[in-house]
Amino acid sequence: MRLVLVALLSAVTFAQTGCIVQENTSRRRCTDRDNVRVTTITVPTDYDVVEYCIEEAATLGHLYFSARTNQRLCDIPEPGQDAEDLCVTNADSANNNWRVYELSCEDEARYGSEYCADPAPYAWFEQGRGGMCCSEEPTNDGDVCPGFTSFCVSDAGLTIGQECENASDKPQGTAMCAEEAPNAFTFYATREDMCCSVEPTGTGHQQDCAQAFQSCLNRNGRGETCLDYDPDATTTTAEPELTSENLLLLVGIVGVDESNKDATCEVFADALDATIISCDIDPIPDDEVDLQIGLVVDDVWASVDTATALGFLESLTYPAGVSLGNSDWIQAIGYYTPPRSLRDEVTRLLERRDNKRVRQRLRAALAAIELDYIDNYILAPWYRNSERFIYQMKQILKKSGRGRIRLWSRLQRRWSLFEYTVRH
């Protein structure tokens, strides 16, 4: 029998997010849980049950859910389902501890992270407003958008992201987990597929990884669907190669044109045991050209030392007609990537559970990366602008408290994106 749900006269605001919840008659919960149209989730310890479920429902585009706070459970309709039909019109009778909640969200209700999309594919952070998207590459360390702006909107369209991510970072396709993290799972905090170094806990969309986890990678970047590692499978994805140069050579040279520039760039690549990413020429006065060579090398700073060593240019054999100018010169620009030891410390801390002491140590680990850059490589650009993720993590760490934003999960996600960026 259908019952009419009588709402309380007063609305209770559970979070400063633009969403207001009205608490409805007790003894009711969302129906059709056995047919996977509704998923019952367990709210992790340290999170407010109702706040957590508000975010789960709102980001999936739903205005209704049911919860039992004393058991830390809530029923969330799956994406694309009719929440009003499942949680109001045809709600099941339940014991006195279950309640159905109705949401009313403002236009800028912000939760979690979402991806930007064309025509504004670049993520940036607007002071006083939060994550936004820009039509042009942001400047001033990501603080200024030189083009037009827009929101990063959830797939369901009801909410927008508290933080935004570049459209190019959005996972695509299928990929296999790596041997060091062989177990595919769906991370509860983001509903994205990831890979875990141990057996994941939980089921369905409510899985977690107690130790190290990472993305699954394919040639397009991060995989949208992750598969368990299988050493015998022919589809195993190899360790990704860098797709952006980590060393840029600028060389003043004579006799290079479009017909022989590639052969000339090969001379420098062979000398440094490097892979060519780009090879361009820019004419300058006195018959010289500025040869610009983007390379991938195994050891950036050793290659910089080799390329700038006295006699390096004279030691090379150039194609016919190519020679050094009267003022032979070379500039080697290495792109900064933090040493593995400093990165491993951040990874190790993020594998642990969130507490005040661990957060303090994480701040120190991020500061150590920045100090290494300042002390040793201050004039070098960061590889693929990866410093933006360090900046975002520092901003997240400035926030206090727990709850809907799930700060630790956001930090883990940002670091996963950082590691993905510096490995490509």
Word description of this protein:
The chain is α+β, with helices and mostly antiparallel strands. It has five domains: 19-105, Hepatocyte Growth Factor; 113-169, no CATH class; 182-238, no CATH class; 247-334, Alpha-Beta Plaits (2-Layer Sandwich); 341-424, no CATH class. Helix content is 23%, strand content 26%. The chain contains eight helices and 23 strands. Helix 5 packs antiparallel against helix 6, helix 5 (340-350) runs antiparallel to helix 8 (407-422) and helix 7 (387-397) runs antiparallel to helix 8. The radius of gyration is 26 Å and the shape is elongated.
CATH architecture of the largest domain: 2-Layer Sandwich
Largest sheet: 5 strands, antiparallel
In spatial order, strands of the major sheet run 1-7-4-5-3
The level 1 CATH classification of the largest domain is: Alpha Beta
Radius of gyration: 26 Å
Poorly predicted spans? 1-16, 235-240, 401-405
What count of structural domains? Answer: 5
Number of helices: 8
Approximate strand percentage = 25-35%
First and last CA, distance:
58 Å
Q: Taking all residues together, what is the mean pLDDT?
A: 84
Principal-axes shape call: elongated
CATH topology heading of the largest domain: Alpha-Beta Plaits
Beta strand count: 23
Class based on secondary structure composition and strand pairing: alpha+beta
DSSP helix fraction? 10-25%
